[in-house]
Specification:
By secondary structure, the protein is α/β, with parallel strands linked by helices. Helix 1 links the parallel strand 3 and strand 4. Helix 4 packs parallel to helix 6, helix 9 packs across helix 10 and helix 13 runs antiparallel to helix 14. The chain is globular, with a radius of gyration of 20 Å. The relative contact order is 0.10. The mean pLDDT is 94.
Amino acid sequence: MKIDNINLGDRPVMLAPMEDVTDESFRLICREQGAAMVYTEFVSAEALIRDIKSTTRKLKVLPQERPVAIQIYGRDAEAMVAAARIVEEAQPDILDINFGCPVKKVAHKGAGAGMLRDIPKLLDITRQVVKAVSIPVTVKTRLGWDAENKIITDLGPALQDCGIKALTVHGRTRAQMYNGDADWTLIGKLKEDPRMEIPIIGNGDITTPQQAADAFEKYHVDGIMIGRAAFGQPWLFREVREFLDTGSVTPTPLDQKFALLERQIHESVERIDEYRGILHIRRHLASSPLFKGIPDFRQTRIQMLRATKLSELLDIISATRETLAKNSALSL
């Protein structure tokens, strides 16, 4: 699959853009684990043009994580164009436009998935951003605003006509948020549309290597994107890639899983500071499948998620690793 002149290989698997998740450390780890391309956190166009430091920091990309896309969102065409030009100066490989974020503070202000209620404006912003920059522009969106307005099969060709180089579709409406099951049938229908010439990337509920393979086989998408399933398990990309390439998976060793998680913790603390770095990493700790199914783990989990010191957190994780290793040895 190619996005403009960027070759992502056969059946690429990408890391989805996620606020407070896809920082530079996590992106780099996911690339090392097999993600074909990674996306930054959402970047507010308004905050970017006002030079808000917490926003401009999101533009930093590392050479080792390329190819990388920076994603922007907003509701005003002039601000989106200005932000796109600022992003281009940061030299990402791709500029992605977010027309899919469903959270209230974004969508109800008319940005993100809120744009799905004003398609003429959505298309106008897309056209203007494409014209404003020389790097490839892509779009990520949803099936539509709600069940009565699943418009993606008409929206896809219209976005292509605006000049975008690829389209990612999350298989839910905005009204669904992240509830229920992602519906890939319309993604597949869009891919089959003879008018569509740009790559179609599917997103939603890909949590296992087999589901990734099924998405390619059933819906014939050009690529897939993994989001929430990567929380606390970046090794999922390696396992998906191996399954797609060979039809089987070598389980990631326990020590490697813990090493990756501990690396995330250290790099989060180094990038921010001890207290806020630990707060930032809690989403990964809370979601990691490493800790699911451990007998009587509830109290330890509470302690882990309340820890505010690096040494305290690492001690808890080390003790948990030893418990898991013992349990694994006993089960053999």
